[in-house]
Amino acid sequence: MSTDVRTPFPLTPRQDPEPRWWAVPLTGTVLAPALASAVSSVENTFADRAFLLTGGVLLSYLLVLPSWFLARTPALRRRRNGLVLSGCMTAALFPAVVSTVGWTLFLVMLFTGHVDG
Protein backbone atom coordinates (compact mmCIF):
# COMPACT_ATOMS: atom_id res chain seq x y z
CA MET A 1 0.00 0.00 0.00
CA SER A 2 1.51 3.29 -1.02
CA THR A 3 0.80 6.63 0.50
CA ASP A 4 0.06 8.93 -2.37
CA VAL A 5 -0.21 12.52 -1.31
CA ARG A 6 -1.73 14.71 -3.99
CA THR A 7 -2.58 18.33 -3.85
CA PRO A 8 -6.17 19.17 -4.74
CA PHE A 9 -5.05 21.91 -7.14
CA PRO A 10 -1.95 21.90 -9.27
CA LEU A 11 0.63 24.33 -8.00
CA THR A 12 1.37 27.13 -10.42
CA PRO A 13 4.25 29.51 -10.12
CA ARG A 14 3.28 32.92 -8.87
CA GLN A 15 3.32 35.50 -11.63
CA ASP A 16 5.33 38.61 -11.02
CA PRO A 17 3.31 41.81 -11.10
CA GLU A 18 3.51 43.91 -14.20
CA PRO A 19 5.76 46.90 -13.47
CA ARG A 20 3.61 49.57 -15.14
CA TRP A 21 0.14 48.08 -14.75
CA TRP A 22 -1.30 51.45 -13.72
CA ALA A 23 -0.60 53.21 -17.05
CA VAL A 24 -3.66 51.91 -18.90
CA PRO A 25 -6.23 52.50 -16.12
CA LEU A 26 -4.82 55.98 -15.52
CA THR A 27 -5.07 56.78 -19.22
CA GLY A 28 -8.70 55.66 -19.26
CA THR A 29 -9.52 57.60 -16.11
CA VAL A 30 -8.17 60.81 -17.63
CA LEU A 31 -9.25 60.23 -21.22
CA ALA A 32 -12.89 59.21 -20.60
CA PRO A 33 -14.16 62.55 -19.23
CA ALA A 34 -12.06 64.43 -21.79
CA LEU A 35 -13.67 62.45 -24.62
CA ALA A 36 -17.15 62.92 -23.17
CA SER A 37 -16.60 66.69 -22.86
CA ALA A 38 -15.13 66.97 -26.34
CA VAL A 39 -17.95 65.04 -28.00
CA SER A 40 -20.61 66.98 -26.08
CA SER A 41 -19.05 70.32 -27.00
CA VAL A 42 -18.68 69.37 -30.68
CA GLU A 43 -22.31 68.31 -30.87
CA ASN A 44 -23.29 71.31 -28.69
CA THR A 45 -25.33 69.04 -26.45
CA PHE A 46 -24.00 70.04 -23.05
CA ALA A 47 -25.94 73.30 -22.87
CA ASP A 48 -29.31 71.74 -23.65
CA ARG A 49 -28.95 68.18 -22.41
CA ALA A 50 -26.42 67.87 -19.61
CA PHE A 51 -27.50 64.28 -18.94
CA LEU A 52 -25.63 63.26 -22.08
CA LEU A 53 -22.33 64.44 -20.64
CA THR A 54 -23.09 63.09 -17.17
CA GLY A 55 -24.30 59.73 -18.50
CA GLY A 56 -21.30 59.36 -20.75
CA VAL A 57 -18.88 60.08 -17.91
CA LEU A 58 -20.64 57.83 -15.39
CA LEU A 59 -20.99 54.87 -17.74
CA SER A 60 -17.39 55.17 -18.87
CA TYR A 61 -16.16 55.30 -15.28
CA LEU A 62 -18.23 52.23 -14.45
CA LEU A 63 -16.32 50.41 -17.18
CA VAL A 64 -12.88 51.83 -16.33
CA LEU A 65 -13.15 51.35 -12.55
CA PRO A 66 -12.75 47.53 -12.51
CA SER A 67 -9.48 47.84 -14.41
CA TRP A 68 -7.91 49.39 -11.31
CA PHE A 69 -8.79 46.36 -9.16
CA LEU A 70 -7.81 43.49 -11.46
CA ALA A 71 -4.73 41.51 -10.54
CA ARG A 72 -1.61 43.27 -11.72
CA THR A 73 -0.28 40.37 -13.77
CA PRO A 74 0.61 40.29 -17.47
CA ALA A 75 -2.07 37.63 -17.96
CA LEU A 76 -4.83 40.17 -17.22
CA ARG A 77 -3.34 42.98 -19.31
CA ARG A 78 -5.71 42.20 -22.19
CA ARG A 79 -8.77 42.38 -19.95
CA ARG A 80 -7.56 45.67 -18.44
CA ASN A 81 -7.01 47.12 -21.92
CA GLY A 82 -10.46 45.96 -23.03
CA LEU A 83 -12.20 47.57 -20.08
CA VAL A 84 -10.44 50.88 -20.62
CA LEU A 85 -11.09 50.81 -24.36
CA SER A 86 -14.78 50.08 -23.88
CA GLY A 87 -15.03 52.86 -21.30
CA CYS A 88 -13.46 55.40 -23.66
CA MET A 89 -15.67 54.26 -26.54
CA THR A 90 -18.74 54.60 -24.32
CA ALA A 91 -17.74 58.15 -23.38
CA ALA A 92 -17.25 59.07 -27.03
CA LEU A 93 -20.35 57.39 -28.46
CA PHE A 94 -22.93 57.84 -25.69
CA PRO A 95 -24.35 61.23 -26.83
CA ALA A 96 -24.68 60.08 -30.43
CA VAL A 97 -26.36 56.80 -29.48
CA VAL A 98 -28.84 58.45 -27.11
CA SER A 99 -29.69 61.16 -29.65
CA THR A 100 -30.18 58.59 -32.42
CA VAL A 101 -32.41 56.41 -30.27
CA GLY A 102 -34.36 59.45 -29.08
CA TRP A 103 -34.98 60.79 -32.59
CA THR A 104 -35.91 57.33 -33.87
CA LEU A 105 -38.40 56.86 -31.03
CA PHE A 106 -39.85 60.33 -31.65
CA LEU A 107 -40.31 59.70 -35.38
CA VAL A 108 -41.90 56.29 -34.80
CA MET A 109 -44.31 57.80 -32.28
CA LEU A 110 -45.06 60.73 -34.62
CA PHE A 111 -45.80 58.51 -37.63
CA THR A 112 -47.93 56.08 -35.63
CA GLY A 113 -50.06 58.89 -34.20
CA HIS A 114 -48.91 58.85 -30.59
CA VAL A 115 -47.64 62.44 -30.57
CA ASP A 116 -50.17 65.29 -30.53
CA GLY A 117 -49.43 68.43 -32.50
Summarize the entry for a quick read:
This protein has 117 residues and is mainly alpha-helical.
Rg is 23 Å
The rough form would be described as elongated
Total number of strands: 0
State the oligomer.
Answer: single chain
% residues in beta strands: under 5%
Largest sheet: none
Determine the N-to-C terminus distance.
Answer: 90 Å
Question: Count of DSSP helices?
Answer: 3
Low-confidence stretches: none
Structural class: mainly alpha
State the helical fraction: 55-70%
Order of helices and strands: HHH
The residue-averaged pLDDT reads 84
Folded structure, characterized:
It is a single chain. The protein has helices at residues 23-42, 50-69, 77-111. It has 117 residues and is mostly helical. Helix 1 packs antiparallel against helix 2 (50-69) and helix 1 (23-42) packs parallel to helix 3. The chain is elongated. The model has no long low-confidence stretch (mean pLDDT 84).
List the helices and strands and how they pair.
Layout: H1 23-42, H2 50-69, H3 77-111
Helix pairs in contact: 1-2, 1-3, 2-3
What key attributes describe this structure?
117 residues; mainly alpha; 3 helices
